[in-house]
């Protein structure tokens, strides 16, 4: 059975074009929802995935309707395939029910993995370069060394409490404790 999934991100967007394209592609049953693809909770998608049977084909108009990130797409397609079903994206002409479609999808997945690794490498290189230049990165301290000394003095000599010092210096009590 060909199952369709249509999604738009906001309430003011329309599902009509997606639903028409899915019907034209032979979708016998269509799940649709208006929810951001970045959200983990997509009730209609979850309901469709629960009802998958061997031989079904989940069809979308574009792969970004199924997920926002490539990693999420790969995870969802893996869940589809574990149920014995296939995945088809009309715009990208990906169809995992054919050997050529599986090849294209795996090349797609390999490129995504390669890009994730390259991003990680570039990030590490950038951090190492910054360290060599004396920059350590991260968030700047909430209290300068002078203000830390003043916090200690006010606590030790004036006997002020942590909560009072936090209000005075406009920082959290934990920042005062660390000072």
From TrEMBL:
One of its GO terms (molecular function) is DNA binding. Residues 1-134 form the Resolvase/invertase-type recombinase catalytic domain. Residues 122-156 are annotated as: Disordered. PROSITE patterns: RECOMBINASES_1, RECOMBINASES_3. Residues 145-156 have a biased composition (Basic and acidic residues). One of its GO terms (biological process) is DNA integration. The active site is at residue 9. Keywords: DNA integration, DNA invertase, DNA recombination, DNA-binding. Belongs to the site-specific recombinase resolvase family. This is Recombinase family protein. It comes from Roseovarius bejariae.
């Amino acid at each position: 059975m060909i199952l369709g999934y249509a999604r738009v991100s906001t309430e003011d967007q329309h599902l009509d074009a997606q639903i028409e394209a899915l019907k034209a592609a032979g979708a016998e049953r269509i799940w649709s929802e208006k929810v951001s693809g970045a959200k983990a909770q997509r009730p209609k998608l979850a309901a469709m995935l629960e009802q998958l049977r061997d031989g079904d084909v989940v069809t979308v108009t574009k792969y970004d309707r199924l997920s926002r990130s490539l990693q999420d797409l790969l995870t969802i397609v893996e869940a589809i395939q574990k149920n014995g079903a296939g995945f088809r994206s009309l715009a990208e002409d990906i169809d995992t029910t054919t050997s050529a479609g599986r090849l294209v999808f795996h090349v797609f997945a390999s490129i995504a993995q390669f890009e994730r690794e390259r991003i990680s490498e570039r990030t590490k290189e950038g951090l190492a370069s910054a360290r060599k230049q004396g920059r350590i990165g991260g968030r700047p301290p909430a209290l300068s060394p002078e203000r830390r000394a003043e916090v200690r003095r006010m606590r030790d000599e004036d006997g002020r409490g942590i909560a009072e010092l936090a209000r005075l210096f406009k920082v959290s009590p934990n920042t005062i404790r660390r000072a």
